[in-house]
Specification:
The protein is mainly α. It is built from 11 helices and 2 strands; from the N terminus they run αααααββαααααα. Helix 6 packs antiparallel against helix 11, helix 7 runs antiparallel to helix 10 and helix 10 packs antiparallel against helix 11. The chain is globular.
């Protein structure tokens, strides 16, 4: 889902506000701003060569999205996510996708199967070619497809807010090729269950996948097996 097209018009955002929002959001997701960084309006206006008004609007929206946080006495800053934050996000992502599979399996057909297969093929292709940042976009597209199959706009918005935060964690795994291959295999297993229209198997495969992801970040932050 493209938020710029589907949501911003209803928020009354101008073209310039959307542009500034997208640029700051992209830099946050790419870790251009270190966790704990205070975002100062004046410095951002200089960085992006715009006036303060669209910067101020963008920062407020990014706080609502959960990508920034307002700290009393400090200002708006890039949050430092804890393991608890990460696990909470993935717990909610899992719950929402289980709900989506339970209510939307009737909406799947051969066209949906083909679209999912294309997403998986692009994910595999970018993994093999080592384009791991691009691979993650298709990884997210796979999960988005499951959610959007419900055709519930509120669910779409809630899920996207969580995905925005999830992308902050994803950046730390771009260079982990084995992790990418493992998640590709798990996505394929979820897809095969969906293709068979087996709700229980789909949910079981999804739970297995989300548990793996949560354990991956536990290994990063607690065991120190991976770099965060």
């Amino acid at each position: 889902m493209n938020m710029t097209e589907t949501n911003y018009s209803s928020l009354g955002m101008t073209t310039k506000e959307v542009m500034v929002y997208e640029r700051i959001k992209k830099d946050i997701l790419n870790n251009e701003f270190e966790p704990g960084t205070i975002l100062v309006e004046r410095k951002l206006t200089e960085k992006y060569q715009v006036s303060r008004s669209p910067v101020r609007y963008a920062l407020r929206q990014l706080v609502k999205d959960g990508l920034l946080t307002g700290e009393p006495g400090k200002g708006i800053m890039v949050p430092v996510y804890t393991l608890e934050d990460i696990l909470e996000v993935y717990d909610l992502l899992e719950v929402l996708q289980i709900y989506a599979l339970q209510v939307s399996m009737k909406n799947y057909n051969m066209i949906a199967d083909a679209q999912l297969e294309q997403i998986l093929e692009q994910t595999r292709k970018n993994t093999v070619e080592g384009h791991l940042s691009e691979r993650m976009k298709w990884d997210i597209a796979f999960h988005n497809f499951i959610i959007h199959s419900v055709n519930n706009k509120r669910l779409d918005v809630i899920f996207e807010m969580l995905v925005n935060q999830k992308q902050r964690f994803d950046v730390t795994s771009f260079d982990d090729l084995e992790h990418g291959k493992k998640t590709n295999e798990q996505h394929q297993k979820i897809f095969e269950a969906i293709k068979s229209r087996d709700v229980e198997a789909s949910i079981a495969a999804l739970k297995e996948h989300e548990q793996y992801i949560k354990q991956y970040y536990i290994d990063k932050l607690v065991i120190g097996r991976y770099n965060l």
